[in-house]
Amino acid sequence: MEVYTTEDQQVDAIKRWCKKYLKWVVVILVIIFAAILVKTFYHQSVSKDNLISVDNFEVIHKKLQSDEVSNGVIKNAKNYIENNKNEYSSLLNLNLSKVYVERQNYNEAINSLNWIIHNSSDVNLLNIAKVRLARLYIFNSQFDLAKNIIGTIKSESWKLQKTILMGDLYTKENKFDLAKKEYLKAKKLIQMFH
């Protein structure tokens, strides 16, 4: 490290340093500034895309809740689901399954519920889909499939629903003694909560 005794020597040293390193300092500052701009614009773009996605979800969701759902709304919902693999898509599939059941299109309802089961990470949404799917299987007399789905419901908070489903399944199979046992278990669970 050099020691400068006069002010002129210090100024000359600064000039030499600037001549030697100023280009690199400017390049580094430009790169940093560019990175900040890119990051800012990217986050604004992602936020804007997310807002558009949420807005689209809300519009489709409201239309699926109406009394008469057009085929165009169903198509828009399917497009949204295909392009957005998120929990909003799971909620739309839940609504779609309801629409399909109302139209007695049970295979499409089953597909929508299976989509939720295979793509959602929300435990309660998964259990709702499983309960609805099991009900569809019971309604269609697909008892083994219903039992398999019911067996995948592990959450304690869904034990009552699971027990009632098993009672419904046994009733539909004409196994009334087993159905009675399940319904009595459900009654005890209800009494525990009160």
UniProtKB/TrEMBL annotation:
It holds the Pfam family TPR_21. This is Ancillary SecYEG translocon subunit. InterPro entries: SecYEG/CpoB_TPR, TPR-like_helical_dom_sf, YfgM. It is found in: Cell membrane. It comes from Paraphotobacterium marinum. GO terms for cellular component: plasma membrane. One of its GO terms (molecular function) is protein-containing complex binding. Residues 15-188 form the Ancillary SecYEG translocon subunit/Cell division coordinator CpoB TPR domain. Its main location: membrane. It is a single-pass type II membrane protein. Belongs to the YfgM family. The lineage of its organism: Bacteria, Pseudomonadati, Pseudomonadota, Gammaproteobacteria, Vibrionales. Keywords: Cell membrane, Chaperone, Membrane, Transmembrane, Transmembrane helix. PANTHER family: ANCILLARY SECYEG TRANSLOCON SUBUNIT, UPF0070 PROTEIN YFGM. It comes from the Bacteria. The keyword Transmembrane helix applies. The chain crosses the membrane at residues 21-42.
